[in-house]
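#struct-queue
[09:14] JT: dropping the first one here, sequence first, then the structure tokens:
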Amino acid sequence: MDYKVSVIIPVYKVEKYLRRCLDSVVNQTLFDVEIILIDDGSPDGCPHIIDEYAQKDERVKVLHKQNEGLGMARNTGIEIATGEFLAFVDSDDFIAADMYEKLYKQAKENQVDVIFCGFYQEIQSNNFKKIIDFQTPILFQDADIQELALAFITKHNKFGKQISRTVWHAIYSKQLIVENHIKFPCENIIPSEDLIYHINVFQYAKKILFIPDAFYYYCCNEGSITQTFRIDRYERNKNERTALLNVLKNDSRILIDLQFVEFTKNYLLSLVNCSSMNFKSKMRIIRTIKKDSIWKEIKIKFSFLSKKGKLFYLTIMLHSSILIYCCGLLSKRKNTI
């Protein structure tokens, strides 16, 4: 079968949600989809479930491997994909039945390398909010694509908003990805593998389309990667900053550093309010961050920072660990900062 879209789904410890996800993909109105399930060393019943789906549907391909993380699992899927376009789904989410039929049709009609759609974000259990980047269809070409890249980093751009950087609400020309050797970075090194992936895609894409229709359902499930505090995230944020600086032009430096400051603010806020760590351990991490030589390199426009970002940035510049800690406590109690 000549597949139109290869759907790559890494699977790890999502037994509770997996069948919901897989049913939404195998029942797509676009039948010519290749479904690639990458068992990333899942220790629960997930391997058995995906083997079951492979036995029932010849479009389903299964690969079992040792755990290496989301980005590496996606790269494995790309290597064996045969479809004209690539798509990615997180295994604890699900999609509308006509998602890939609509995206593929629009991609072919407009001859684009990438097409993005909107999505539904779960606010509470089974309560979803529609998220779209642009109210009407919009096509980006040539120099406009570089402006688009900046919008994936920060809201301080010509559009006045930050665009959702996730890969699961889009499809990508496989030829573009393979010919330019575009791969996901390891999440143990860089926190937002989707951002780096997109920045690299945008260096080669000629036409990118956004449509306001929403097809993807992003579910906020307990224990997911995005919901878990990780001590190493600060170092991974530094790695991401370096990766962005290596790809983008120098005139993007201020925006990249702005993102780093905001990420550091979020990290410190999460650290201060982490219930599983004692005060002494928190202060040790805070002191390490405030002494980091990277702060001598940072170049930002102070007015671009959020209120909380300004507060945390000033306390770091003042080299006061206790002030940083107090800001974290205050921010938890007052969301108006």
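[09:21] JT: and here's the second one, same format:
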Amino acid sequence: MTGTRRRPSQATPGHRESAADGRSTRWDGHKARRRAEMLDAALAVIEENGTEISVQQIADRLHVPRPVVYRHFDGRADLDDAIRRHIVESLMAELLPRLHPDGTVRELVRGAVGTYVGWVERHPHLHRFLAAADPHGDSATVLAGARDRIGGQLADLFADTLQRFGIDRNRARPMAFGTVGFVDGVVNSWRAAPTLTSEQVEGILTESVLALLEGNARSLDVPLTRDTVVSELMARAQLSPRSPAGVATVVADL
């Protein structure tokens, strides 16, 4: 009895490309996860041993040969830049959620300042590793980007408040970035010569930032004090004669 021989199926070019794309996507995901594991290991090594670490220490923590680590980075400078980006992301994950208009002005400032000072105190080696970045290298761009994100979010919060009172929102940016620069400078000085406790530094910064906000608010005739509830300030702003809504109400009553 004879049978017909079945011809092996052949994938079409489209199917082959789809399969290749799927393998590439899975491989890219694997590389990204592996790279993240190496950066997590690097942060752990810095936390335990200080800023002067070797690639071998990272490899030992992951139980892999040293060349495996370099396979994911273009040399030591690229590795150090990636570590700093990873540190910044861990800080941003804690700090940015605190820059929201919840509670009183005092609570907002104390929460943001306390979060930053607390992070620096808990992770002194990570903070020093950030501070040791080459001012002309890629890491400096990473740090500048972090300040821009913090300052930008704070500027948006200030600008929205000013605009509701009918005040030029462009005034917000210098206030926001000046505040960020002041806090960063004080914290860097404290870590270089830690003669005060973190609670003392947090208190000094909180009072100083509140005084800065209250002083600017007075000069702009904005009814803000440290005990003002931010949501109530926003509601009052809608009724201000200088706000667009307030102007419309005044015109309607004429």
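[09:30] RK: nice, looked through the second one.
[09:31] RK: Residues 96 and 150 are 7 Å apart (CA to CA).
[09:31] JT: good to know. Residues 245-254 have pLDDT under 50 and may be disordered.
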